[in-house]
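Async update (no meeting this week)

Hi team, since we skipped the sync, here's where things stand on the single-chain job. The sequence we agreed to prioritize is pasted below, unchanged from the tracker. I ran it this morning and attached the output directly underneath so nobody has to dig for it. Comments welcome in thread, and please keep replies under the output.
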Amino acid sequence: MRPKRSRAGFTLIEIMLVVVIIGLLAAVVTPRLMGNLAKGQIAATRASIKNLETAIDQYQLDHSGRLPNSLQEILPYLRNQKSVPKDSWGMEFSYTPNHADGSFSIVSAGPDGIMGSADDISN
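Output:
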């Protein structure tokens, strides 16, 4: 008579099935997370533009309505900033003052990093 062997553990097929299920779950979840990441970067860039607008407004109040020539001039109005902030993709904002009418534009190149394309973010 043969002694009974203990069969504790998993078979190769069971382990492969678990790996396939985990792979399928990752394939479904990853694109959704990436979409949310892109939306978060866009929202953060819009918030940075709003902060820059507020700093420019404060600058104008202190300088008789004059616009700054560059974003470097508003650095004292940006709290806890040692340099002008960049957008979520690490690119510098484009700042264009219109001294004639007191308007200005602040533009981020957006996710593609190319200024003037359809995904640019501006005030």
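Quick observations from my side:
Helices lie at 12-62.
Residues 18-122 form a domain with the Glycoprotein, Type 4 Pilin fold (CATH 3.30.700.10).
Reply here if anything looks off.
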